[in-house]
Structure formats: structure tokens, C-alpha cells
Amino acid sequence: MLSPIVGLMKHCLNGGLAEIGTKGRELIGLGPGLTPCGDDFLGGLFFATHWLQDAYPGEFHAGTKSILDLAHWARNRTNPISHAILNDLAMGQGPEPLHDLVRLLLKGVDYDGGVREAVNRLLRIGHTTGWYILAGVLTCLISVNEKANNSLAHRP
């Protein structure tokens, strides 16, 4: 069950986020539960992508249209509750701990241990939901960092 998620993680780390909408299709509905782990992982990826685009307008492009197309495509391929949550996450809406975590990570400041607290609260969501959302968020952030490092390394 984890193989497609690991595959998408590797793709993001090597090639960035431009093809999430296409490569993410095999994750929709993957796994058991009210919100399957594939949906949760993609939701975290979508959420972080939304807020990176908001925080860095014009500098960060990750195919918003393909993400929204994937969320729409998922409508009949996962359960209605998971689909609604996936759409919310793609639009930058989600649980408070997720907002807190991404806000703190984007600020790059954690004087009082707020990141740890936000992570702990996120991990308490569902049986595995928080874990997979966190994995999606971190994959997005690491992918963007890798892409930035690679483009800086190739500048004259």
C-alpha cells in the first residue's frame, strides 16, 4: 500500500511538484478507512502547495489547475467524506493544527516549541490521517527546497 506513496514522494523530490495532478491519481482511494491514506497524503501535499503559492506569489508554481482537476477527478473514486476533505485541503482549508504547523514552518521561527505542539496535535487526527497529511506537507516542502537548491547550484 505504501509503494505508490513512496513513488510519488520520490518523483516530487526528483522532479518537483509540477506533475502532482497526473502522478497522484493512483493514490486516490488508496487504503482503508474513512479517509484513505492516499487521499490524506495528497491532501497534505495540496494544502502545503496552496499556502506556498500564497506566501510566495509569482515565485512558486506547482500546477494549481492540475491539483484542482485531480481533486475533481477523485469525486467518484473515493468516498464522499474523503473527497470533501481533499477538496478543502486543495483550497487551503484544513484543521487548526495543520494551519498552525504550516504557518510556523513558513515563518521559519520556533522559539517556543510551537512546531512540535502543532505536529503532536496534527498526529492525533484520525488513526493515521494526521501522519499521512504530515508526510504530504513535508514532501511538498522538501521538494520545493530541493528544487531551489538545484536551481541555485546551476546558476553561473
Task: Indicate the topology.
Elements: H1 3-15, H2 20-23, H3 37-55, H4 64-73, H5 80-90, H6 96-107, H7 114-123, H8 129-153
Describe the overall structure:
With 156 residues, the chain is an all-alpha fold. The protein has one domain (3-153). 67% of the residues lie in helices and 0% in strands. It has helices spanning 3-15, 20-23, 37-55, 64-73, 80-90, 96-107, 114-123, 129-153. Helix 3 (37-55) crosses helix 8 and helix 6 packs antiparallel against helix 7. The termini are far apart. The model is unreliable at 151-156 (pLDDT under 50).
Average pLDDT value? 86
The helical percent reads: 55-70%
Oligomer designation: single chain
Poorly predicted tracts of residues: 151-156
Given the C-alpha coordinates, what overall shape results?
A: globular
Structure annotation, total helices: 8
State the total count of DSSP E strands: 0
Radius of gyration, CA atoms, in whole angstroms: 15 Å
Total separate domains: 1
The biggest sheet amounts to:
none
Based on helices, strands and strand pairing, what is the structural class? mainly alpha
In short:
By secondary structure, the protein is mainly alpha-helical.
